[in-house]
Amino acid sequence: MLGCLKNPVVVTVEINMNLVALTVIGLISRLWGLSYPRAVVFDEVYYGQFVSLYMKRIFFVDDSGPPFGHMLLALGGYLGGFDGNFLWNRIGAEYSMNVPIWSLRLLPALAGALCVPLAYQILVELQFSHCAALGAALLILLENSLITQSRFMLLESILIFFILLAVLSYLKFYNLQRDSFFSGSWWFWLLLTGVACSCAVGVKYMGLFSYMLLLTIAGVHFWHMIGDRNLSNVSLMCHFLARGLALVIIPVAMYLSFFYVHLTLLYRSGPHDQIMTSAFQASLEGGLARITQGQPLEVAYGSQITLRNVLGKPTQCWLHSHTNTYPIRYENGRGSSHQQQVTCYPFKDVNNWWIVKDPGMQQLVVSNPPRPVRHGHIVQLVHGITTRYLNTHDVAAPLSPHSQEVSCYIDYNISMPAQNLWRVEIVNRESDTDVWKTILSEVRFVHVNTSAVLKASGFFGASLPEWGYRQLEVVGEKLSKGYHQSMVWNVEEHRYGKSQEQKEREVELHSPTQMDISKNLSFMAKFTELQWKILTLKNEDTEHKYSSSALDWITMDTNIAYWLHPTSGAQIHLLGNVVTWASANIAALVYACLSLWYLIRRRRKIYDIPEDAWQLWVSAGGICVGGWAVNYLPFFLMEKTLFLYHYLPALTFQILLIPIILQHLGNHLCRSLLLKSMFSALVVAWFSSVYLVYRTFSPVTYGEPSLSVTELKDLRWKDSWNILIQKQ
Question: Is 375 inside any structural domain?
Answer without folding.
Answer: yes
